[in-house]
């Protein structure tokens, strides 16, 4: 790829626009990016916001692309793949799928064989440049293609590689779904403070900054979470009482069960999609 590679997006929703926004803030140029979706209004808004190329024709988007990011819902992926099958068999771009619970083998069976495929599980904080993405490359992916895939997702936050595709289920339940767990905790904390009489806006501001500050400390201090937790707990103080309450209600057990439910669901989705490909 001596010229600047062209990146095509099939699907122009939340995740595609988050990733495109991040790419443009880094080294990518609007003229390098194409997006296609059935909804012309959605495309016009992306074109206006980012100055990228758009089309309602998936085939046209795929024809331009050195890298084709598949950013549609898993349930419509098979149909989207059928529209670009003959193009990708001809041009053989790097395929990057961000769909939850969709195996590379299933995707390959929908697109035709022997394509270089990267699977990625991003998350919604990519919208604010604070995403966490895990990537897995099939053996057909070359080193420069791997590097390019990493550049795309590193432009919206952290990007890490997995050695085994099967680890995607564990990642989906951690960082893919994880932002929702954090928002649930945030909601609960805010509600409790409001019920205690705190002004709603103040409760929200303090709760958000507390989560953001704690996350930054966990990332930057070099201390493990157990040490950081102990540092907040004065003997005989308030935090000790709260942590005791969490432990009595088996907070860790609840988190583990919720995590397992998401991981199991990711496996079920993969199985359903695999069966629909047979
Ligand atoms: N939302 C999340 O937290 C995460 C989502 N994902 C994955 O990202 C993918 C996209 O999700 P979102 O952006 O949230 O969905 P979304 O609903 O916001 O966007 C989907 C896009 O696909 C377009 N589309 C529908 N049918 C199409 C077709 N046949 N051809 C081309 N485009 C078509 C829609 O018009 C829309 O632009 C999904 O596969 C999801 O599993 C991955 C990680 C996190
Ligand atoms: O809930 C879902 O299925 C997708 C995958 C990870 C986040 N959202």
UniProtKB/TrEMBL annotation:
<protein>
    <recommendedName>
        <fullName>Pyrroline-5-carboxylate reductase</fullName>
        <ecNumber>1.5.1.2</ecNumber>
    </recommendedName>
</protein>
<feature type="domain" description="Pyrroline-5-carboxylate reductase dimerisation">
    <location>
        <begin position="165"/>
        <end position="269"/>
    </location>
</feature>
<feature type="domain" description="Pyrroline-5-carboxylate reductase catalytic N-terminal">
    <location>
        <begin position="6"/>
        <end position="101"/>
    </location>
</feature>
<dbReference type="GO" id="GO:0005737">
    <property type="term" value="C:cytoplasm"/>
</dbReference>
<dbReference type="InterPro" id="IPR029036">
    <property type="entry name" value="P5CR_dimer"/>
</dbReference>
<keyword id="KW-0521">NADP</keyword>
<dbReference type="InterPro" id="IPR036291">
    <property type="entry name" value="NAD(P)-bd_dom_sf"/>
</dbReference>
<keyword id="KW-0641">Proline biosynthesis</keyword>
<comment type="similarity">
    <text>Belongs to the pyrroline-5-carboxylate reductase family.</text>
</comment>
<keyword id="KW-0560">Oxidoreductase</keyword>
<feature type="binding site">
    <location>
        <begin position="10"/>
        <end position="15"/>
    </location>
    <ligand>
        <name>NADP(+)</name>
    </ligand>
</feature>
<dbReference type="InterPro" id="IPR000304">
    <property type="entry name" value="Pyrroline-COOH_reductase"/>
</dbReference>
<dbReference type="GO" id="GO:0055129">
    <property type="term" value="P:L-proline biosynthetic process"/>
</dbReference>
<dbReference type="Pfam" id="PF14748">
    <property type="entry name" value="P5CR_dimer"/>
</dbReference>
<dbReference type="GO" id="GO:0004735">
    <property type="term" value="F:pyrroline-5-carboxylate reductase activity"/>
</dbReference>
<comment type="function">
    <text>Catalyzes the reduction of 1-pyrroline-5-carboxylate (PCA) to L-proline.</text>
</comment>
<comment type="pathway">
    <text>Amino-acid biosynthesis; L-proline biosynthesis; L-proline from L-glutamate 5-semialdehyde: step 1/1.</text>
</comment>
<feature type="binding site">
    <location>
        <position position="58"/>
    </location>
    <ligand>
        <name>NADPH</name>
    </ligand>
</feature>
<dbReference type="Pfam" id="PF03807">
    <property type="entry name" value="F420_oxidored"/>
</dbReference>
<keyword id="KW-0028">Amino-acid biosynthesis</keyword>
<dbReference type="InterPro" id="IPR028939">
    <property type="entry name" value="P5C_Rdtase_cat_N"/>
</dbReference>
<feature type="binding site">
    <location>
        <begin position="71"/>
        <end position="74"/>
    </location>
    <ligand>
        <name>NADP(+)</name>
    </ligand>
</feature>
<keyword id="KW-0963">Cytoplasm</keyword>
<dbReference type="InterPro" id="IPR008927">
    <property type="entry name" value="6-PGluconate_DH-like_C_sf"/>
</dbReference>
């Amino acid at each position: 790829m001596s010229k600047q590679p062209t990146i095509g997006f099939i699907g122009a929703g939340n995740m595609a626009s988050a990733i495109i926004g991040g790419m443009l803030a880094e080294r990518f140029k609007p003229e390098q990016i194409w997006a296609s979706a059935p909804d012309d209004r959605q495309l016009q808004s992306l074109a206006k916001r980012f100055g990228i190329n758009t089309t309602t024709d998936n085939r046209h988007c795929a024809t331009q692309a050195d890298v084709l990011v598949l950013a549609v819902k898993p349930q419509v992926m098979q149909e989207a793949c059928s529209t670009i099958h003959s193009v990708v068999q001809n041009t053989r771009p790097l395929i990057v799928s961000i769909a939850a619970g969709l195996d590379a083998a299933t995707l390959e069976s929908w697109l035709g064989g022997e394509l270089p495929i990267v699977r990625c599980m991003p998350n919604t904080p990519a919208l604010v440049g604070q995403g966490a993405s895990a990537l897995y490359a099939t053996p057909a992916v070359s080193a420069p293609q791997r590097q390019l895939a990493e550049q795309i997702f590193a432009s919206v936050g952290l990007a890490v590689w997995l050695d085994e595709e099967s680890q995607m289920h564990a990642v989906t339940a951690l960082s893919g779904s994880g932002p929702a767990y954090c928002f649930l905790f945030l909601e609960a904390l805010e509600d409790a403070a409001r019920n205690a009489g705190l002004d709603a806006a103040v409760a929200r501001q303090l709760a958000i900054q507390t989560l953001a500050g704690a996350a930054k400390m966990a990332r930057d201090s070099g201390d493990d979470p157990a040490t950081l937790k102990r540092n907040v707990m004065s003997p005989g103080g308030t935090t000790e009482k709260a942590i005791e309450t969490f432990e009595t209600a088996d907070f860790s057990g609840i988190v583990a069960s919720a995590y397992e439910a998401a991981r199991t669901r990711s496996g079920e989705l993969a199985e359903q999609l695999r069966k629909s490909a047979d």
